[in-house]
Design brief:
Layout (H helix, E strand, L loop, with lengths): L49 E3 L13 E6 L10 E8 L2 E4 L5 E4 L6 E10 L11 E4 L1 E2 L8 E10 L6 H19 L4 E11 L9 H12 L8 E5 L6 E3 L3 E4 L5 H8 L6 E5 L9 E4 L16 H6 L11 E3 L4 E5 L15 E5 L13 E6 L11 E6 L15 E5 L11 E6 L2 E10 L4 E7 L1
Parallel strand pairs: 9-10, 9-11, 11-13, 14-21, 16-18
Antiparallel strand pairs: 1-2, 2-5, 2-8, 3-4, 3-6, 6-7, 12-13, 14-15, 17-24, 18-19, 19-20, 20-21, 22-23, 23-24
C-alpha cells in the first residue's frame, strides 16, 4: 500500500482548511496592442495545466464560499517578456492573471473547464492549452467527525468490482470499525457510483478524478462529506478533507482515517533520557493497536483528534501537569454511565523535545482491557503531534508513535518512562494493571 501519510504532492495529505489559498489579482480584460515584435517566432501553449478544489481560506474578505484552483507552469516567450495569461472558462475569456495560477470562486458545486494561453508585452498570444476541469469545493461545509459520515464511493476504471462488494467494504466492514473504535459515536453511510472511465491525462490526479466522477454521477453540493475512489490503479493514498484512492477494499477504513486527519500509527523505540527525533528508532506502520497501523481499534491521540473522547458531554481525557497517582479506565471499552475515571492521560512535552517551528507535542497514556484468553496488554504510551504540519498539497508524515520498551509495546507494572518538559523531568511509572483499571504514578521534578 502506498504510504498515505501527511506527504506532499500526490501521496496521501495532511491539513487544515484554514491554510492560505492563493488569490491572484488580474488586469482588465483587454489585450496589449500587437507591435509585431517577434511575430515570426513559433509559439507553444503553456504546459502542465491543472485544476482542483484547492484549499479554502479563512483570511479572504469576504470569506470564500467556494473555490477552484487553476495552476500551470510559468511561461517564457522567445525574444520577448510575458505580460499576462489569458484564462478561458468554458471557452470564454474569463481572467488575465499575471501569475501562473488563479483562484476561481464560482458557486459551490459548479463544474467548469479551463484553458490558458500566454500573452507577451507585444500582444502576441500563444496557443491555448488543453482543457482541465473541476467542481467548485464548498468552503462553507465542515464535515462532522462524530455521528453519521456520508461517503460517496466512486468506481473508476474498475468494471470488475461490483457495487455490492464496494458497499460492503465501506458501509459494512469500515463502518463497523468506526462504530467500534468511536464507542458507537461515528458510522458510515452513503452510496456507490460508477464505474466511470478516467479521462486521458488525468489518471492519479485525485481532485480531477473526483471532480469528473462527481460530474458524471450528478453530485454537485453537500450530499456527501468525503469520497473514496476504488480501482483507479493509483495505489492507496489520501488527500486530507477531500478523499482517497483505495487500491484494496480492506484499507478503506485506514484511508478514510487519513482523509479525516489521522496519521500513521507507527512504533518507536526511544531513549528514556530524551524523547525526540534523534533518540527514537521508528518502524513504519508499526502499531498493533490502531487501524492506522494494524488492527481495528484507535489510539488515544487519534480518538482525541476526532473528538471521540468527549462522550455524552463528559471528557474522558485528563491533562496531567502535576505529580500524583492516576487511574485509567480501558480505552477499548465505552464509558459507563456516570463514570469519572479518565480513559486516557495527556502530557504536553514542551518545547525542549520538539523544534520551535512545530506545535508542542504530547505523550498520551492509555490502557487496553485484558481480554479472556489473551496475554495482558498493560499500559500503552504514544508520542504524538496535536496538529498536522509540513503540508504541501497532501498529507505529510507527522509524529504519531507508539513507544516501545525492550521490544514490547506494553508498559508492565514497574516500567518507567521519563522525559524532559521545559526545565522539568516527568516520570511515568506503571503501578498496577487489572482487568478494568491501570494505575500510574507521575513524578514531576
Amino acid at each position: 500500500m502506498r504510504r498515505s501519510c501527511f506527504c506532499a504532492g500526490r501521496s496521501a495529505s495532511t491539513v487544515a482548511r484554514t491554510s492560505l489559498a492563493l488569490v491572484i489579482t488580474f488586469s482588465t480584460l483587454a489585450l496589449v496592442p500587437d507591435s509585431g515584435a517577434g511575430a515570426g517566432t513559433a509559439l507553444e501553449a503553456p504546459e502542465n495545466l491543472q485544476s482542483g478544489p484547492g484549499v479554502c481560506s479563512s483570511s479572504t474578505v469576504p470569506p470564500m464560499a467556494s473555490r477552484i484552483g487553476v495552476y500551470w507552469s510559468p511561461y517564457t516567450f522567445p525574444g520577448a517578456a510575458l505580460h499576462h495569461y489569458n484564462l478561458y472558462r468554458d471557452g470564454a475569456l474569463f481572467a488575465q492573471p499575471r501569475a501562473n495560477s488563479y483562484a476561481d470562486t464560482p458557486p459551490p458545486g459548479e463544474y467548469h473547464s479551463y484553458t490558458v494561453s500566454a500573452v507577451d508585452v507585444a500582444g502576441r498570444e500563444s496557443p491555448r492549452t488543453g482543457h482541465t476541469s473541476a467542481i467548485a469545493f464548498d468552503c462553507t461545509h465542515t464535515p462532522a467527525r462524530v455521528g453519521e459520515l456520508r461517503v460517496a464511493v466512486l468506481l473508476v476504471n474498475r468494471p470488475g468490482t461490483s457495487k455490492d462488494a464496494a458497499a460492503d467494504a465501506v458501509f459494512g466492514h469500515a463502518s463497523d470499525v468506526y462504530r467500534e473504535a468511536s464507542w458507537g459515536q461515528t458510522w458510515l453511510t452513503g452510496d456507490v457510483f460508477g464505474p466511470y472511465p478516467v479521462k486521458p491525462g488525468r489518471k492519479c490526479d485525485m481532485s480531477a478524478v473526483i471532480s469528473d466522477a462527481r460530474q458524471a454521477a450528478g453530485i454537485t453540493h453537500n450530499e456527501y462529506d468525503h469520497f473514496l475512489v476504488f480501482g483507479a490503479g493509483c495505489g492507496s493514498w489520501a488527500y486530507l478533507g477531500l478523499g482517497a484512492f483505495v487500491g484494496n477494499p480492506t484499507v478503506a477504513a485506514h484511508e478514510l482515517g487519513h482523509v479525516l486527519g489521522m496519521l500513521h500509527a507507527r512504533s518507536s523505540s526511544c531513549s528514556v533520557a530524551a524523547l525526540n527525533d534523534r533518540s527514537c528508532t521508528t518502524t513504519g506502520n508499526g502499531s498493533r493497536f490502531d487501524f492506522m497501523g494494524g488492527t481495528r481499534e484507535l489510539n488515544a491521540p487519534h480518538k482525541d483528534r476526532l473528538g471521540w473522547l468527549n462522550m455524552g458531554g463528559r471528557s474522558q481525557l485528563l491533562d496531567v501537569s502535576q505529580s500524583g497517582t492516576y487511574e485509567i479506565a480501558p480505552l477499548n471499552v465505552a464509558p459507563k454511565p456516570g463514570e469519572t475515571t479518565p480513559h486516557a492521560l495527556r502530557f504536553v512535552t514542551g518545547p525542549t523535545t520538539v523544534p520551535s517551528y512545530r506545535q508542542p507535542q504530547n505523550v498520551y497514556v492509555e490502557f487496553r482491557q485484558v481480554k479472556p484468553g489473551q496475554p495482558p496488554q498493560g499500559v500503552l504510551m504514544t508520542h504524538s503531534a496535536p496538529t498536522v504540519y509540513g503540508y504541501h498539497g497532501q498529507l505529510s508524515e507527522g509524529r504519531n508513535h507508539f513507544l516501545t520498551r525492550n521490544g514490547s509495546y506494553s508498559f508492565k507494572p514497574g516500567s518507567r518512562l521519563p522525559f524532559p518538559r521545559d526545565d522539568q523531568t516527568v516520570t511515568i511509572e506503571v503501578q498496577s494493571v487489572t482487568s478494568d483499571r491501570a494505575v500510574v504514578q507521575v513524578t514531576v521534578t
